[in-house]
Amino acid sequence: MAKESKAQRVERIKKEKDGLDVLQDIYLYAITGEEVDPEDIDRFKWYGLYTQNRNLQAEDDPTLYFMLRVKLISGELTLPQLKMIAEISEKYARGTADFTTRQDLQFHYIRVVDLPEVFRLLDTVGLNTIFAAGDVPRNVVSCPVNGIDKDEISDVRDVVEKINEALKGNKAFSNLPRKFKIGVNGCSKNCMHHEMQDLSFNAVKQENGRIQFAVSVGGGLASNRRVADHIGFVAPSQVLPLTKAVIKIYRDNGNRENRRKARLGHIIENWGIEKFREVLQNGLSFKIKEPNDIEYVHSRYREHFGINESKEEGKSFIGCALNSGHIGLDGLNNLIELFEKYEATALKATVTQNIIITAVPTKNAEAMAKELEEVGISPFPSNFKARVQACTGLNFCKFAISETKGKAKEVVNYLEEKFPDFDERVAISINGCPNSCAHSHIADIGLIGTKVKKDGQPVVGYEMVVAGFLHGKESEYAQKTGIKFAQEDTKEYIEGMIKEYKASSFTSFRDYLLTKAS
Question: Could you tell me how far CA 235 lies from the centroid of its own chain?
Answer without folding.
Answer: 27
